[in-house]
Specification:
Elements: H1 2-32, H2 37-61, H3 64-92, H4 95-105
């Protein structure tokens, strides 16, 4: 019973974090590529689907320890690259431009 409870709690945490990360990515992408938003989302979904396919394949080949190591490495790399892109975007636009973008979206 304890294993099921831990699995359900971990699943809820993963779902909440996934929703938060996707919200951040979508909001940043829609502001950064205003003229090409559909193309940006299509490319994002393509790579998301491609990596999901790769994960399904190696899920049956690798042991769980290696899967977790890949997950941790991917999480660190994606966090670092997201922070770099967001900081570059913030430094390249003025505060008034960013406020105008969010006012237009509402």
């Amino acid at each position: 019973m304890r294993d099921i409870t831990i699995a359900l709690i971990c699943g809820c945490i993963f779902g909440i974090v996934d929703a938060a990360v996707n919200t951040q990515i979508y909001s940043l992408a829609s502001v950064m590529w205003r003229e090409a938003t559909p193309q940006a989302f299509a490319i994002s979904k393509f790579f998301h689907s491609l990596l999901s396919t790769v994960c399904m394949y190696y899920g049956s080949v690798l042991e769980i320890e290696w899967q977790l190591a890949l997950l941790i490495a991917g999480a660190i790399i994606s966090t670092v690259t997201f922070v770099i892109v967001e900081r570059r975007f913030i430094s390249s636009t003025s505060r008034e431009e960013r406020k105008a973008d969010y006012v237009e979206m509402e």
